[in-house]
Design goal:
By secondary structure, this protein is of the alpha/beta class. The protein is built from 13 helices and 10 strands. Strands 3-4-5-6-7-8-9-10 form an 8-stranded parallel β-barrel, surrounded by 7 helices. Strands 1-2 form a two-stranded antiparallel ribbon. α10 crosses α12. The two termini are 37 Å apart.
Length: 352
């Protein structure tokens, strides 16, 4: 089943969530290779004084990435968000996504991210400014939000109608309030209500960690797609597992350890190429940690690996670890049924 955003036809209805510090170009391309139909960039600030920083330039790097290129922007000023829209479109963005979902204090204290849901007039002003700025380029605008600011302030349905009227062409809803952060459990009734209230595609997000959960969330919400974030950390093949299950009703066999070894080593090489030696070896540690967290001797290996200071040594250690694992088992073990994803998404959500 395909999905249309403006003139762009997406390959399927399984999306990679934008996670700052995680969904950089190498990770997005890996998830696309393993079955994701769409990936949104890390959050890019609308502050013009930060556009030329190394961090922002890395986040805006889409070299060799398959389209459509979707860039998520965040900010609190309508004029600045409009300017950021044009800036990113001129640098290759084919879809602009507005962030109204990030709960991180660093973002919300500046009234960006999900904090904007607390100020409905400002939220709508920003959306209209971005849509108007993108329209001359025929670039569609999408938006990611939460169910509301707090338990007593769930306004996603009202805002969804307003955003649709302003010209937003797809809405993603994370099934938690800003107050919840990533604690507790996502709820899907609000997402279902948003889907019933608008005509544009709606994407369900939050706690989708298995093929069965993806099936159940799609059925419960009638959403057009699901967006997966933390569950893809260290398990990017979850997209092809879900696709297989939705198509056949049966489970795909876990990947071969030898395949995961190759995937991770290739990911690391691409990661080092983007970040360089000093930053690359350090920012790669979290990705490696996610891969090995539930594997035999994984925590001990992670501790040793975190002490390695050069890319070549890190690459060699990872290769040796997974080769040793392949000597013991053919396929990766199934993830524990009660496994909770890491909280990295919350910590990494803030912009510069």
């Amino acid at each position: 089943m395909t999905l249309q955003i403006g003139t762009h036809t997406l390959e399927n209805r399984l999306f990679v969530a934008p996670m700052a510090g995680v969904t950089d170009r190498p990770f997005r391309m890996l998830c696309r290779e393993l079955g994701a139909g769409y990936a949104v960039s890390e959050m890019v600030t609308s502050r013009k004084d930060l556009w030329n920083t190394l961090k922002t330039s890395r986040r805006a790097n889409h070299d060799g990435e398959p389209g459509p290129i979707a860039v998520q922007i965040a900010g609190t000023d309508a004029a600045m968000m409009a300017e950021a829209t044009v800036y990113n479109i001129e640098r290759g963005a084919q879809i602009i996504d507005i962030n109204m979902g990030c709960p991180a204090k660093k973002v919300c204290n500046k009234w960006a991210g999900s904090a904007l849901m607390r100020d409905e007039p400002l939220a709508l002003e920003i959306v209209q400014a971005v849509v108007d700025a993108a329209q001359p380029f025929n670039v569609p605008v999408t938006l990611k939000m939460r169910t509301g600011w707090s338990e007593d302030h769930r306004n996603a349905v009202k805002l969804a109608r307003d955003f649709e009227s302003a010209g937003v062409q797809m809405l993603t809803v994370h099934g938690r309030t800003r107050e919840q952060g990533y604690k507790g459990h996502a709820e899907y009734d609000t997402i279902a209500a948003v889907k019933a209230a608008v005509r544009v595609p709606v994407v369900a997000n939050g706690d989708i960690r298995s093929p069965e959960k993806a099936r159940d969330v799609l059925a419960a919400t009638r959403a057009d797609a699901v967006m997966i974030g933390r569950a893809a950390q260290g398990r990017p093949w979850i997209f092809r597992e879900i696709t297989h299950f939705l198509d056949t009703g049966t489970h795909l066999a876990p990947p071969l350890v030898a395949e995961v070894r190759r995937l991770l080593l290739d990911h690391l090489v691409a990661h080092y190429a983007l970040y360089g030696e000093f930053s690359g070896v350090r920012t790669a540690r979290k990705h490696i940690g996610w891969y090995v967290r539930a594997l035999p001797d994984g925590e001990a290996f992670r501790a040793r690996m975190n002490a390695i200071e050069d890319c070549a040594g890190q690459l060699r250690a990872v290769g040796d670890y997974f080769q040793g694992l392949a000597d013991r088992m053919d396929r990766m073990p199934d993830p524990p049924a009660d496994e909770e994803p890491s909280g990295e998404e919350e910590a990494a959500c803030a912009v510069d």
